[in-house]
Structure formats: C-alpha cells, structure tokens
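Human: If only I could read backbone structure tokens as easily as an amino acid sequence. Underneath my words sits a plain record pairing an amino acid chain with its backbone structure tokens. Take your time, and here it is.
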Amino acid sequence: MDYVLQTRDLCKNYGKKIALTKLNLKLEKGKILGLLGPNGSGKTTLIKIITGLLRESSGQILVSGMKPGVESKKIVSYLPDKNYIYKWMKIEDAVQLFKDFYDDFDENKMNELLKFMKLDKNMKVTSLSKGMTEKLNLSLVLSRRAKLYVLDEPIAGVDPVAREKILDAIINNYAENSSMIITTHLVKDIERIFDDVAFISYGRIIKEGNAEELRIQNNKSIDEIYREIFAE
C-alpha cells in the first residue's frame, strides 16, 4: 500500500499538557481524509507536526516515507487556519511570493483559480472580505503541485455561498495522485468530499474508516456520527 502519511504511537506534550497520545493514522495516496474533532482535540497540533512546524515528543511520523523536515516541506502544501498574506500586498504580490518561494507553484493554475473565484490580481489584500481572503489563500495553496495538501478549517467563518465555491475549487483542482487532509468541525457542509474520516478526541484517533462504509454501517451521515461521538 502506498501511504503518503503514516504515524505510529505519535505523542506531543507541551510541558505537562498532553496534546497527542499514541496517535496512529495512515493516509493512502489519492485519498481525501477528513480529520474531525472539536476545538482542542489535537487537530492543529497534528497538522503542525505533519507540516514540520512542530516536532513530536515521541513516536514516529513519515510523510511520503520521510521524517518531517526540509525535504518533506517541499511536497506538502499547507493552508493554516489564519490568514498568512501580508496586508501591504496586492493579490499579484502574493502570487509572486508563492512563485518565488515554491518550485512546484503553477501560475497557470493560479490564474484559472483566480478567474473561478472572481478575484482580480490588482485587488489589495486589505480590501478583501473574509470569504475573498479565504478564496485567495486556498487558491495559492491549491496552485502548488504538491503530494499532500493540508487544509486547516478551510470553510470556517465564511458564508454558505463562499463555502460552496471553496468546496468546488477543492474538488475541481484535486489531482488523483495527490492526497489531502482537511480539518473541520463544520462536518455537514464538507463531508461529501471525504474518502476517509478520522475522529480525534483528546489527542487520540477514536474512530476511523472509509466514509461511505461508516455511513452504511451506522445508517447515519458522517455529521450525525460526529454529533453522536462529541455530544456534550
């Protein structure tokens, strides 16, 4: 089996605070994985270890067979849950930044996505609404020819129309030979694009599997399973 991501007994502690506990996860090539859990469940910590922004405390993680580092970062395209574009920029400046920074950046793809998102290169970043900013950030991330795309809460805080546009962009620009991890707590809006799902709670994967098989086994949507697991 060709795995883009494998973790074995992955642990992360911040002093006495335990963020991840013996977390085991595998992601096959060509699959979209929904990493689902409430705030504080360990989603962002896991993503930061995958993207090389944090180091694990113990256990093992391999991204396309490599330990996270300089080489793995070249094949991972990461959309953080916070805006990362400088306020002084126009959209064309952001495009140039990505072009200079990433060898795998595809400017033609970016131009297509800007057209699809109805964004103009002359627009100032400060003039963009939250939805437009999300669309720009996603377009930049999807324009890289990466092996693994990691999207942290890509539809949080945007209106339903922008949400649909973002989901369509993900589906239409997703390459079959690449994989994707999407974290969200807005499960209902996005579950249709997941191949696999993993539910994370207190730093552990507590349930995982093929999305369609889980729906059939439980006779419920992924959103309903999520609500059942995390009912307060």
